[in-house]
Amino acid sequence: MLADSGLPPKDGAAPYMTAPAEIQLHFTSTDMSVRQALIRLLAQLARHVPDQDDLGRVEIVVAEALNNVVEHAYCSAGMGPVDLRCRFGCGRLFVTIGDEGVPVPQAILVPEVVQAPLPLPEELPEGGWGWMLIRELTENLSYHRVGGRNELTLEMLVSIRDS
Amino acid sequence: MSTISRSGFQIVTVAETRIDAAVAIAFKDQMRQLTDGGAPDVVLDLTDVSFIDSSGLGAIVAAMKQLGKDRRLHLAALMPNVDKVFRLTRMDTVFAIHDSVEQAVGANAG
């Protein structure tokens, strides 16, 4: 590795003056396709987002949102189509996830204000952290139910590599 | 996953690079098999794990609970994004977290 010169690495990626093009992925709601979609998304984002911490936050947030689609939106239907779109703007990354599953309960989208004390180790829950992670790592969340579809947009602050 | 005994500790090394919803149940089952009847202190070596989601975190919590009150699950060598998930969910206060397996074994030797 060369010393960090502050310049973008010469990895063959074409320099651009404007925001990078939108990234789109379409897949079926299974745990394995979520994993593969995340790996593909992160590989594409890494060309535009240099900071590992930014990429890490995006991976956690998108993973949890996609897990919710698999486990809750499509839980009764088995599986269904998922689409994911990413766009950059104003120092932010906007990730919109669409699915045709059941609506997201409103109560889940309301931010938790009070942090309850943790239970004893032997009484700890073995899940339920997904929305907590999403809320902690996003600047903004918006949810719409449009024509039988869920559309969740996650907004995160990320530094985009400029040329 | 593989396990060895070292200085009275059971070290369990995770061969996966991701502990996510796709492997969480299998992870929990393997942890049960590997740690059954082992040493009181179990160190989970996460050196190769670059990503964990809430399902994976749930599986590690389940593995801790499976050990029971008299045994302890230590976590070693967390990569930054794995560490982040533990901190944000406050699970870093529940587990003994060490920089490396060596440190986990050494810190508890005295």
Automatic annotation (TrEMBL), chain A:
Molecular functions per Gene Ontology: protein serine/threonine kinase activity
Ranges of residues in domain Histidine kinase/HSP90-like ATPase: 29-154
Record keywords: Kinase, Serine/threonine-protein kinase, Transferase
Pfam family, one: HATPase_c_2
Name of the molecule in the record: Serine/threonine-protein kinase RsbW
From TrEMBL, chain B:
Stored SUPFAM superfamilies: SpoIIaa-like (SSF52091)
Gene3D superfamilies linked: STAS domain (3.30.750.24)
Domain of life: Bacteria
PROSITE patterns registered for this protein in UniProt: STAS
Signal sequence interval, chain numbering: none
GO molecular function: anti-sigma factor antagonist activity
STAS domain ranges (all copies): 19-108
One Pfam entry name: STAS
Family, as annotated: Belongs to the anti-sigma-factor antagonist family.
NCBIfam families: ant_ant_sig
Protein name, as recorded: Anti-sigma factor antagonist
Organism: Thalassovita taeanensis
UniProt lineage: Bacteria, Pseudomonadati, Pseudomonadota, Alphaproteobacteria, Rhodobacterales
